[in-house]
Amino acid sequence: MAIKKKKKGYGLEIKTFRGRDGASYLVFRTREGAFNVFVEVEAKEAARQCGASGEGTPRQMWGSLWGK
């Protein structure tokens, strides 16, 4: 049986940090060393801002947006 090499992905590393402001930051580091940072926001409000109706749970709201 021949050994197959593993497929290589994008090589994203992910860590979370708590800022001095109390916010949670999700940080992605690419294989090339670039950093992308996302700040945690309230899921329901974020869904509204992205076009979901104000009805339902955050899961339902995001589900309606995800399929668009």
Strands, count = 3
Shape: flat
The number of helices is 2
Poorly predicted ranges: none
Overview of the molecule:
The mean pLDDT is 88. This protein starts with 12 loop residues before the first strand and ends with a helix. It has one domain (13-66): 2-Layer Sandwich (SHC Adaptor Protein). Helix content is 24%, strand content 25%. Helix 1 (43-49) runs parallel beside helix 2 (58-66). The longest helix has 9 residues, at 58-66. It is α+β, with helices and mostly antiparallel strands. Strands 1-2-3 form a 3-stranded antiparallel β-sheet, with no helix packed on it.
Give me the secondary-structure topology.
Layout: E1 13-18, E2 24-29, E3 35-39, H1 43-49, H2 58-66
Antiparallel strand pairs: 1-2, 2-3
Helix pairs in contact: 1-2
